[in-house]
Amino acid sequence: MTTAIRFEEVSKTYHRTGEDYRALRDELTRIFTFQRRTKTRREVNALRHVSFAVEPGEAVALIGENGAGKSTALKLVSRITYPTSGRVTVSGRVGALIEVGSGLHPELTGRENVQLYGRILGLGGPYVRKRFDDIVDFAGLASSIDRPVKQYSSGMQLRLGFSIAAHLEPDILIVDEAMSVGDAAFQHRCVERMSKLVREGRTLLFVTHHLGSAEALCGRAILLTAGEIDMDGEPKEVIHEYLRRLHVRLVAESPDRAVGGDGIEILHVSTHDSSGDEVAAIRPGDPLTIRVRYRAKRALVSPQFSIAIADPTMGQLVQASMLVDGEDLGRVEGEGCLECAFTALPFKPRTYDILGEVREGFGRLIDYQRWARIQVTDEVAQHGSGVVAVWRSIYGAPVALPYSWRYPQPDRADLPETADRRTR
Amino acid sequence: MHVVDARRRRLSLDNLAELWAYREVFFAFTVRHFKVRYKQAAIGVGWSLLQPLLAAALFAVFLGHLVHLPGEGVPYFLFALAGLVLWTFFATALNSAADSLLRDASMVRKVYFPREILPLSAVAAALADLPAALLVLLGMEMATGGRPSITWLLIPLPVFMLLLFASSLGLILSALNVYYRDIRHVLPFFLQVMMFGSPIVYSLGVVPLEWRGLYQALNPVATAVDDIRRLVLHDTWPDPVANASALLTTVVLLLVGYYVFQSLQRDFADHL
């Protein structure tokens, strides 16, 4: 069987001028005044000499940070953009879901869009009609299929786009990060649908930040870093390596200096232990006090601060919010200071972001940024065997609550007696 | 199987074969252009009839009545209408084609199909307005004492010529529009110059005889308009030499247009 997707020494360079397009006016002026074209063009190497092959029936996850070239790779496979050098060979019909609303036309109804997209995929009208009900069912759009797509919410557009791409029997399905918009139930259905297509022997190329679904769906993962293939192999191993590097890089980066928005300036954020000493690291379960010095650039009416502690890959874990707690600072002018004291942070060892936001009035956001980082370290893990320590520090859920494993003997007395009680 | 690489193929039969393979998409886009245009306009199809009629009435009042511009011996309104029916089609087609890639930027950025389908289907959709406008013209001719003539059968000839001409200019302008966004500001002016540079409101007879051959060869609009006046108003056959030379110009321009479009189209998605 021929290879489904083959990249041979593929490079892609984007030229970024100041603006996205030129004005004919400027170009004519330039020609008539004998000026040379100004060399303000900045080159961005989205992909550098990338080579890999995907066999038919393989499910491959492309992972990597933003700007690593994942989406560019997908656009090359779906022929939307062309390489600067090298060659991409694709055999089979490609169904691509590159962004929300891929291939949907806003003025047309959902029904007309299904037909148009079917034609673009090279499928005849009868075939599309046969699958039409399945597509609409899956997208859950039975009541609005005859409304123009421009009236759809982004969630509805996503559902329709995915449903079309996944039902029109593509040999190669390309999915880019689309599921992050849908609700949990739809995400689950997408993963199910994709795994069904994979089981049927179709090829899947999947870009996602949702590492869990990458691991669940794909038999292979490729890690892209700055346009180059960093690692290619078992999803579990590649994801582990990706998380490890992400972690290393985040720790190495110094915390960003606080920069204020237009209404408030965050002057200084510091983290303190129980005795009030400033610390950069705490142990799991230790208390933590976050101290914020700020300056109001104008008189603020009841500003509400919230402070969240977040895991860089998983998002916010805890949040202390004045808005939720009903704290009222009243009118705030000039410099001020506040502290937020957590009595315990039951987090596993790794580095966490401290995110701060300030809202004013009825929740209008005036400032939102990363204020600081806090490292949670566990000396035992640090001194344990290298791989295990790193694995413990980055794998799994970050919150550590007390628990223990037990192995009781199966005993009739332990079984619930609901049936008996009900009859009684 | 398809291959994308850094080599640029500008003119090849592969492109045509692919265009043929995607003909269903072309029809779908054409129908869509048409639908979208009429969904948005309040008076729908009427607009395509009203446009040449209003313009002809306007010119009849100012140029025919006040300036006493001659109309080749037929009522000036009818004379102008014959030119304006074709001109309206040409201008609509070119405007729509020039804007086609920007209008559907979201499609170009997200899904593959031969890009020339967009300007070409824009031109094809404009063609859909023409039969009704032509029927009005023929009706007006009959109303002013004309009779159906065998020469009417050749009306598709000037239409076909303008279709090719609008397609070739549409390919070039739509591609340039991606890179130079002020094309859309220049185009109305360009169209106005072209309209007054073509015998729409005046007769081809204005052009001196020794220059007329070259003029008609280089300006297919002039030839097409002269054709339709001969066929409908004067019941005579078109000038074969003028038509052959204008058709040749159009075909050459179409090749140039296709070449320009193909050399630019790979970077569309990166610039839109």
In brief, what are we looking at here?
Chain A is of the alpha/beta class.
Describe the structure in your own words.
- The complex is a heterodimer of chains A (424) and B (272).
- Chain A is built from twelve helices and 17 strands.
- In chain A, the strands form four sheets. In chain A, strands 5-6-7-3-8-9 form a six-stranded mixed sheet, sandwiched between helices.
- With 424 residues, chain A is an alpha/beta fold.
- In chain A, β16 (350-360) and β17 (364-376) form a beta hairpin.
- Chain A has two domains: 5-249, Rossmann fold (3-Layer(aba) Sandwich), CATH 3.40.50; 264-379, abc- transporter (atp binding component) like domain (Coagulation Factor XIII, Chain A, domain 1), CATH 2.70.50.60.
- Chain A is globular and about 70 Å long.
- Chain B has 272 residues and is mostly helical.
- Chain B has one domain.
- Chain B has helices at 13-21, 23-40, 46-66, 76-98, 100-103, 105-110, 117-127, 130-143, 156-179, 183-197, 209-218, 220-233, 240-265, 268-271; one strand at residues 2-5.
- In chain B, α3 (46-66) crosses α4.
- Chain B is globular, with a radius of gyration of 20 Å.
- Chain B starts with a strand and ends with a helix.
- The interface between A and B is large, with 45 and 39 residues.
- β4 of chain A pairs antiparallel with β1 of chain B, so a sheet runs across the interface.
- Distance between the ends of chain A: 67 Å
DSSP helical segment count of chain A: 12
CATH hierarchy class name of the largest domain in chain A: Alpha Beta
Number of strands of chain B: 1
Radius of gyration of chain A using CA atoms only: 27 Å
SSE series of chain B = EHHHHHHHHHHHHHH
On the 0 to 100 scale, the average pLDDT of chain B is 88
- The low-confidence parts of chain A are 254-259, 380-391, 419-424
Largest interface: A-B, 45 and 39 residues
> Which outline of chain A best applies?
globular
Task: Tell the overall outline of chain B.
Answer: globular
What does the average pLDDT of chain A come to?
78
Which structural class best describes the helix and strand composition of chain A?
alpha/beta
CATH architecture of the largest domain in chain A: 3-Layer(aba) Sandwich
Write the CATH fold name of the largest domain in chain A.
Rossmann fold
